[in-house]
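Intended use. Records like the one below are meant for learning the mapping from a protein sequence to its folded structure. Do not use them to infer anything beyond what is encoded.
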Amino acid sequence: MRGATVYAQGQPIDLAIAMQAAEWLATLMSGATTPAETTAWQQWRQAHPDHERAWQHIESVSGGLRELDAQASRKALQPGRSSRSVSRRSSLRLLAWVSTIGLTGWFGARSAYAPDFARAALADLSTGVGERRELTLADGSRLHLNSGSAVNLRFTGTQRLLQLVRGEVFIATARETGRPHRPFLVETAHGQAQALGTRYSVRQAEGSTMVAVEEGAVRLMPRHGGARQVIRAGQGGGMTAQGVLPAHAVSPDIWAWRQGLLLADAMPLRDFLHELSRYRHGLLGCDDAVAGLRISGVFPLADLDAVLLSLPDSLPVDVRLRTRYWVHVEARQQR
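Structure written out for the chain above:
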């Protein structure tokens, strides 16, 4: 969603700022806000006029949610229940809504991504942030869903179609033995990828679909026609809706997420944090001054907090936890 625009009080506003406002609302509704978080929230509002405009907008349209939270708090006062735990669960539910379709309602999103959030909520198969899933399809193919992914299955007598609504999947296609032969297709916003006896991954990004082939080959067919391209084992490629992108060699590290790992080989810190953000709720970013620092290693996706807190051990950076859901990496301060 990087670069997408939503609207607050009738005027365009950057999606990242809208997300920050939503994160602050979730924090303040948790019932466990610390003085430091309150100060950070006030400083954020004062840092830029768009911050204040986003806050005023989301606060003005969140009255119904606040009433639900108040009802939950009243129930929490009953014997045997914890007000802190109930209010925290309420704020987490709010955060979940924000992460799916909440922003489109609160900020009136006018981007191409808004429909995907709604479609993902209704998809046949999906995973949440930080969740991975593996299953066998009706034809015997194996499907792995990465974090924050959603698919629809459209198997008929003439084709095996998997619609990738968002995220990333890895597929080991089963051999088709019936008649007529049914091709295996993955459809995204940018076109279709046809398996040619294959083990491969498909990832739908903001403006393109990326494919990496472990075994066999995949034919890329852009949505609006043009040249097609076959990506072979050991290669990666991609397509936009208008055409194909150049093929290139890929490392098996690209599929490490299936084992719950992120492998980095001199990866720029900005790209590293962007990859981690796919597996963690909230906002995760860095200052431009440290964005180009390189990082290498094998990192467990199951303990991202530990990964983030270890960054100062290998890079000249400080990790700031502004809230539980807002982490920022900046240049190390002189002490």
